[in-house]
Design goal:
Elements (H helix, E strand, L loop, with lengths): L1 E4 L6 E3 L43 H8 L3 E11 L13 H10 L5 E14 L3 E4 L1 H4 L4 E5 L5 E10 L4 E6 L20 E6 L7 E12 L9 E4 L11 E3 L5 E9 L9 E5 H14 L5 E2 L2 E5 L2 H6 L8 E6 L4 H5 L6 E5 L2 E2 L5 H7 L6 E8 L2 E8 L1 E2 L12 H6 L1 E5 L2 H7 L7 E6 L4 H5 L6 E5 L2 E2 L3 H9 L7 E7 L2 E7 L4
Antiparallel strand pairs: 1-2, 1-13, 3-4, 3-6, 4-5, 5-8, 6-7, 7-8, 9-10, 9-12, 10-11, 11-14, 12-13, 13-14, 15-22, 16-17, 17-18, 18-19, 18-20, 20-21, 23-24, 24-25, 25-26, 25-27, 27-28
Length: 489
């Protein structure tokens, strides 16, 4: 299967979809909506039409919903592969050729891309895809009335391809959320967005299938539709016949990169569990069981004397994980999790990820063909919390992206340090870059205080007076040095 993300540049993923022995754990962390609510579920007023889904004309839906759909344009600074290195020479003969005939090439250049999004709260909260804004140095949101606003990332999540933006505006039209769990195959839907930059385009079709796994990530659960969606539609809404958002357009199957009637949308119910976490803390907290799983194939079911080809086969139990503490073993087949039957292996990660941290879950397994029930206290997924996942003082003011340095990461990077914050990225032309901070540096102190977590860095920067330099102590290879960085505004 070949899928394309609906954003320029197009991302092509090819291959058979496999649920590998990757660590399970998945999407949907529990959270509560902020006050005021982040979104509404009240259907829009459709003038001159019945509210019955079967009789609502699409023209009324288009008139009601299109004003809340936005055009998202991004700018990204990209390193120029043809630019000469710091020494003014290169081993690449093509670089020498261009230098000889065209002179010095710029070290960086700007690229521009377009996508879609939709407003969910009147004070300027906008939903889109993560891949629409990933790596962007500037984001602009253009409303249907022609107004344009700079946008900031409130939170984003690569694994579910969701992002929440904020613009400084009031009294905006909004789109209500529907219930994607109630969608039925064959139900009519409408996609609204900006394909190829053509603003306010609407197309209609039906729900072709549900629960599609297409290899885009560990939490695949896509709505398939034949409503025409193309590059530029990414992040736009898929709405039902009452004008409620039931999905977020994100990918297409295509040999050419253009629509052939097979498109995919993220179910809005998945977004409902994630967006409030973006608003509250800028990232997603997921439940973690600590197992690697694989599907139960006909051959495995026969060899293990299982009654059905169902469940999630435990390939590995991670040390010191909730699964190990609960007594799960490699070779167990998980057939039920917290009251939910597991028919396919890929269902388990979404359920685990949606379990609140420290909540106890009942896990039913088949071990050597015999039923067994255990209880596991779900932990938080142990993944690095990157500052680049959300707007933060370090990213906005310093141009710096960091993540906590764990012993495992230190060993992987060949670093002698086992605590601190490793610099994951430095924005070109930023205060951090001007001060000489480099990717791979390890921040151990800020303003003479030990700094080991992202929260401690945020706290130190929040306490810093405007215009005053921040003193960083960093470790670089075998050396230790101090760097003073004066933040932007």
């Amino acid at each position: 299967m070949r899928t394309h993300r609906l954003f320029k540049p197009w991302i092509v993923l090819t291959g058979v979809v496999l649920l590998t022995a990757g660590i399970l754990l998945l999407t949907r962390g529990g959270s509560s909506a902020a006050v005021p609510p982040l979104w509404t579920e009240k259907p829009p007023a459709l003038a001159g039409s019945s509210t019955a889904a079967s009789s609502t004309p699409w023209v009324a839906v288009a008139k009601a919903d299109t004003p809340a759909v936005v055009n998202i344009s991004t700018t990204q600074v990209v390193k120029n592969p043809m630019a000469l290195g710091d020494q003014g020479s290169s081993n690449d003969p093509f670089q020498g050729f261009f230098h000889q005939f065209f002179g010095d090439m710029p070290r960086t250049f700007r690229t521009h891309s377009l996508g879609s999004g939709f407003i969910i709260r009147e004070d300027g909260y906008v939903v889109t895809n993560n891949h629409v804004v990933d790596g962007a140095t500037e984001i602009a949101v253009k409303l249907s009335d022609g107004r344009e606003f700079p946008a900031k990332i409130v939170g984003r999540d690569e694994k579910t391809d969701l992002a929440l933006l904020k613009i400084d505006a009031k009294g905006l039209p909004v789109l209500p959320f529907g219930d994607s769990d109630k969608l039925q195959v064959g139900e009519p839907v409408m996609a609204i967005g900006n394909p190829f930059g053509l603003e306010g385009t609407v197309t209609t079709g039906i729900v072709s299938a549900e629960g599609r796994v297409i290899g885009e990530g560990p939490y695949d659960n896509f709505i398939q539709t034949d409503a025409s969606i193309n590059p530029g539609n990414s992040g736009g809404p898929l709405v039902n016949a009452t004008g409620q958002v039931v999905g977020i357009d994100t990918a297409i199957f295509s040999q050419s990169g253009e629509s052939v009637g097979i498109g995919f949308a993220i179910p809005i119910n998945m977004a409902k569990t994630i967006l409030p976490q973006f608003e509250a803390k800028g990232h997603v907290t997921r439940g973690w069981l600590g197992v690697s799983i694989q599907p139960v194939t006909p051959e495995l079911a026969k060899a293990m004397q299982l009654p059905k080809e169902e469940g999630a086969l435990v390939a590995q139990v991670l040390p010191d994980s909730p699964a190990q503490k609960a007594g799960l073993q490699a070779g167990d087949v998980i057939v039920e999790y917290d009251g939910h039957a597991i028919a396919k292996a890929e269902e388990l990660p979404r359920l685990v990820a949606g379990t609140p941290v420290e909540q106890t879950a009942t896990v039913k397994v088949l071990r050597d063909g015999k039923p067994l029930t255990v209880t596991a206290q779900i932990a938080q997924m142990p993944e690095p919390q990157k500052m680049a996942e959300a707007a933060s003082p370090a990213r906005e003011r310093l141009g710096l992206a960091v993540q906590p340095l764990t012993p495992a990461l230190a060993k992987q990077l060949g670093l002698p340090d086992t605590s601190g914050l490793v610099v994951a990225g430095v924005k070109d032309g930023s205060p951090a870059a001007e001060a000489g901070i480099q990717p791979g540096d390890v921040i151990v102190q800020v303003n003479r205080k030990p700094t080991r977590t992202v929260a401690e860095l945020r706290q130190a920067l929040a306490a810093q007076k405007a215009g005053e330099p921040t003193l960083f102590q960093i470790h670089r290879k075998d050396a230790s040095l101090f760097v003073a960085v004066t933040a932007n505004g």
